[in-house]
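Researcher: I'd like a candidate sequence for this fold, 256 residues long. If you have to choose between options at a position, lean toward the conservative one.
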């Protein structure tokens, strides 16, 4: 809607820092429901340090039983076909679908107690609260399933909006995202997540203006900061996606 578009424009620029300050002041008593943590091995100080310095904290592992239960949940659900909410297919109908490159399921936490507990985990919420300077407001949850998709000549299909290209998100004035792989993403054919680590400098004007950049520009300007997230199913990470990132075009299906 119009107000959201205005917010997303303002949030790109330094002026939004003042709004973050006001939000922190007026929402300092905000409460969030939490559940006992399943991530006992996470060191909160290390997580906060990594997020502030690099924009990503990588050492999170979702137990196998949780991954398996989420996959069982997926098998019962209808997903949006290429993000189209008016065109849905069952999870197990994803094979041999023409021109299908991505499926998504919006807000699974509303009817999956397990997912609800994961993103309201008390340790996760504590880390996010310290990073934001205020108790977080939960925006949404999603499950994405990327599908290898090729034209009749065997070339990767050029998806709308450069689905697998570098971009950054503007989902608020300050925000974090929590990710978990639901499939093994152990090589560059698996559609792994790629993040350009932030540095101590503010975004330059060009970066604020261009939300999407080419592969060539990323390699030319940020090569030393490009990080590939590789790991088995259950590999998790928290990320400030207000800087450039992407999911690689998958040669195998990838769930996240």
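Model: Candidate sequence:
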């Amino acid at each position: 809607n119009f107000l959201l578009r205005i917010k997303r424009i303002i949030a790109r620029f330094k002026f939004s820092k003042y709004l973050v300050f006001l939000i922190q002041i007026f929402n300092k008593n905000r409460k969030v429901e939490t559940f006992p943590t399943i991530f006992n091995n996470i060191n909160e100080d290390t997580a906060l340090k990594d997020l502030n310095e690099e924009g990503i904290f990588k050492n999170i592992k979702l137990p196998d039983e949780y991954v398996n239960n989420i996959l069982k949940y997926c098998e019962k659900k209808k997903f949006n076909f290429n993000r189209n909410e008016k065109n849905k297919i069952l999870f197990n109908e994803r094979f041999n679908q023409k021109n299908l490159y991505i499926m998504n399921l919006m807000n699974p936490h509303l009817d999956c107690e397990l997912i609800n507990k994961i993103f309201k985990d008390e340790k996760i919420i504590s880390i996010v609260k310290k990073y934001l300077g205020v108790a977080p407001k939960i925006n949404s949850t999603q499950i994405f399933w990327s599908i290898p998709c090729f034209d009749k000549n065997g070339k990767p299909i050029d998806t709308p909006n450069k689905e697998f290209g570098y971009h950054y998100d503007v989902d608020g004035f300050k925000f974090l995202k929590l990710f978990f792989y639901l499939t093994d993403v152990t090589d560059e054919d698996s559609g792994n997540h790629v993040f350009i680590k932030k540095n101590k400098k503010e975004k330059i004007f060009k970066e604020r203006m261009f939300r999407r950049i080419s592969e060539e520009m990323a390699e030319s300007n940020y090569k030393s900061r490009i990080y590939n997230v590789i790991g088995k199913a259950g590999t998790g990470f928290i990320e400030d996606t207000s800087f450039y990132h992407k999911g690689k075009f998958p040669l195998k299906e990838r769930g996240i």
